[in-house]
Amino acid sequence: MAFSLQARIVFPVDRPSIEHGVVTMEGERIMALGGAETAVGKAYDLGDVVILPGLVNTHTHLEFSDLKRPLGQAGMRLVDWIRLVIAERNRRTDCPIDSIAAGLLESVTAGVTTIAEIATADAASYALGKPVELMLLAEVIGFSRARAAAAITAVTERLDALQRRNDSDPGGLPRNTWQLGISPHAPYTVSPELLRQLVELARRRNLPVAMHLAESAEEIELLAAGTGEFQELLDERSMWDAAAIHGGSRPLDYLRLLAEAPRALVIHGNYLEADESDFLAARAERMSLVYCPRTHAYFGHPPYPLADMLAAGVRVALGTDSRASNPDLNLLAEMRHVARIHPTIDPHAIVRMGTLAGAEALGLDWRVGSLTAGKLANAIAVPLPPGATGSPQEMLAAVLANADRPSAVWLRGREVVSPP
Ligand SMILES: [Zn+2]
Q1: Running DSSP on this structure, what letter comes out for residue 384?
Q2: Residue 254: is its pLDDT beyond 80?
Q3: Residue 60 CA to ligand 1 centre (angstroms)
Q4: How far is the CA of 1 from the centre of ligand 1 (A)?
Q5: CB 279 within 8 A of CB 312
Q6: Which one is the CATH code of 55-362: 3.40.50.720, 3.20.20.140, 1.20.120.140, 3.40.50.300?
Q7: Which of helix, strand or coil describes residue 158?
Q8: Residue 59 CA to ligand 1 centre (angstroms)
Q9: Whether residue 420 has pLDDT greater than 80
């Protein structure tokens, strides 16, 4: 049964905004978009709100969604924070099923309807959630070359288990809600040789690959010289293999390996150099950069060259990262943070990063990421600040300058968060 939502502004993202626009949904899909004359079925006037596509969070680790506050303190070194993450993981004995369920619920309430998750837990943990679009990227760790074969066997088994669960209609969710992928963790936990083999596996199965890269200055030192905090951490954990990384390496060497994957997400990229962002820009069809704004701020990295990246033609998507480095999983808050600290970037581009660019990065733009007839009916209504006037562009800026949460969220045409 079709119904229509009427709003002061409809912002489809893939085409210009529509003032006093209407979004019509039928079943799981968007049926039509346009002015009042396009309404079909029962019409709901939502008043002074902007309707946006459901948000796309391209990077998180839901296993930490039960944390009340980030681990450690702002400004700490990444390597010290990683020690806290390891301790936190060791403290947890059970499968983090409740934490993942809490993270899925928090995400949906915040208007996030597509999530790319670095998956460490077993398949059953993800079968409880709302029908959000989930990309489960199976995490792989294995630094010493001796561990590569075992790591490949383990991730192959995990991918098979996830696929079986997906095929068998998990928890009554629509079939194939999950897309699968592989996540070689980072250069300080995955050797170039293991990365090469993982990319080969991704090619055989036509899967995307997501890797944390160029996240900290210490990582750059490890690649260049094989020294520093990460070398010490690996040594401490009996994982160090002096021959795993060639001296004089840099993130570009990893980008070249990732470029062979069907699709690649480069997570963070806080310390990429100009030739490295050019490399990404030249391959923007298949390679994307994932900026996690508030996590970047938490560690006090130098300013993120977002405007330069966008100007160079890099596809930049947004992620919250986990609650171990961020206060919440609210992607709209990331977009607002971007608006605050990158004031030259236009609101349209910011909304695009949090929606369509994320869907494109994941290869899911054929079904989510914009309000387009035929795509899934995933949408959010965000209140306009009282008295907001001006062009749609100005009103979008006002929404980003505001702090209100979505007043309503639709997942596959069903309202899951209602206006108060
Ligand atoms: Zn991460």
Answers
A1: P
A2: yes
A3: 6
A4: 40
A5: no
A6: 3.20.20.140
A7: helix
A8: 6
A9: no
Average pLDDT over residues 72-81: 91
User: Phi first, then psi: what are they for 4, rounded to 5°?
Assistant: -125, 140
CA 41 to chain centre: 35
Confidence bin at 176 (pLDDT 50/70/90): low
Sequence-distant (6+) residues with CB within 8 A of 122 are 95, 161
Q: The tokens of 104 are what?
A: 């899925």
Of 178, 184, 127, whose CA–CA distance to 154 is shortest? 184
Instruction: Kindly calculate the radius of gyration of the chain based on its CA atoms and give it in whole angstroms.
Output: 21
- DSSP SS3 for 167: helix
Cα(55)–Cα(345) distance, integer angstroms: 19
The rounded Cα 329 to chain-centroid distance in angstroms is 10
CB 22 within 8 A of CB 36: yes
Bridge-partner residues for 266, per DSSP? Answer: 211, 289
Reported as a single tens digit per residue, the pLDDT across 183-224 is 999 999 999 999 999 999 999 999 999 999 999 999 999 999
Q: Indicate whether 234 pLDDT > 70.
A: yes
Superfamily of segment(s) 2-53+371-417: Urease, subunit C, domain 1 (2.30.40.10)
Phi and psi at residue 291, to the nearest 5° = -95, 130
Give the environment of ion ligand 1: residues with CB less than 5 A: 321
Tokens of 142: 């294995």
Taking the centre of ligand 1 as the mean of its atom positions, its distance from the CA of residue 138, in whole angstroms, is 12
Helix axis angle, 78-91 relative to 229-236, nearest 10°? 30
Q: What angle do CA 186, 139, 203 make, to 5 degrees?
A: 90
- Residue 143 phi, psi (nearest 5): -85, -45
Structure tokens given for 184 = 């070689």
Spell out the domain ranges in the chain: 2-53+371-417, 55-362
For the chain, what's the residue count?
420
Q: Ligand 1 mean position to 94 CA, how many Å?
A: 21
Task: Tell how far the Cα of 71 is from the centroid of ligand 1, in angstroms.
Answer: 13
Question: 35 alpha carbon to ligand 1 midpoint, in Å?
Answer: 41
